[in-house]
Amino acid sequence: MRSNPARSLPRITLLAAVSLVAVSLVAACGPSGPTTGPSSTIAQVPPSATASRAPAGSARASSSAAAATTTQTDTAWGRIWDALPSGFPRFPGSTPADDAGVKDVSAAWAVTNGEVKAIADWFQQALEGATFSTEALSGPAEDGSYVLDSVGDAGCRIETVIAPTGGLTLITVKYGAACPNA
């Protein structure tokens, strides 16, 4: 049996029109622009939606740890508080990154297109201004990350890791159990 090309053309046109409508509906429901780089589990919330911008060099409290916590976790690094005290410095424009899949940290934040070394320097200055001493600032590591090791009174230790992850810079903090919780 031979197909008649004249009869197939309306069917092809109808199928093409239905496909075009379906693609248009999917595009209308999808993201409003092209996506670039690898996908990430970090929610990209505009900084203004979660925290007001602080001037460069100033310290801000973590919104995710505004209240002191009494729980701690044992990690390979050592025992840490499960959240930061309310006065802990937070990089301006950073957003909580609790959904980043990072475990065993006191806090995690993300900065869109943040300059890793500049953020590490900012944290060093902010922690020194909050009476912590810098034990070491290491980096850049092979992956481009920096690690800031800070110490305080009575065995208080803090590890701040600043790492590039595609278009985001991830900041994680381990706040040692010997550190003050208020």
Question: How would you characterize this protein structure?
Answer:
By secondary structure, this protein is of the alpha+beta class. The protein has a domain at 53-175. The protein contains three helices and eight strands. The protein has helices at 5-29, 47-50, 116-129; strands spanning 72-74, 79-81, 95-96, 107-112, 133-138, 146-151, 157-165, 168-175. It has a six-stranded antiparallel β-sheet with strand order 3-4-8-7-6-5, covered by helices on one side. Strands 1-2 form a two-stranded antiparallel sheet. Strand 6 and strand 7 (157-165) form a beta hairpin. The chain is globular and about 35 Å long. Mean pLDDT is 72; it is low at 7-69.
Strand content: 15-25%
Order of helices and strands: HHEEEEHEEEE
* DSSP summary: helix tally: 3
Please identify the oligomeric state.
single chain
Residue-averaged pLDDT: 72
Strand order of the largest sheet: 3-4-8-7-6-5
* Structural class by sheet pairing and helices: alpha+beta
Distance between the termini: 85 Å
Q: Considering DSSP H and I runs of 4 or more, what fraction of the residues is helical? A: 10-25%
Number of strands: 8
Report low-confidence residues grouped into runs of 5 or more.
7-69
- Main sheet specs: 6 strands, antiparallel
Rg over C-alpha atoms, rounded to the nearest angstrom: 24 Å
**What is the overall shape?**
globular
Write the layout of secondary structure elements.
Blueprint: H1 5-29, H2 47-50, E1 72-74, E2 79-81, E3 95-96, E4 107-112, H3 116-129, E5 133-138, E6 146-151, E7 157-165, E8 168-175
Antiparallel strand pairs: 1-2, 3-4, 4-8, 5-6, 6-7, 7-8
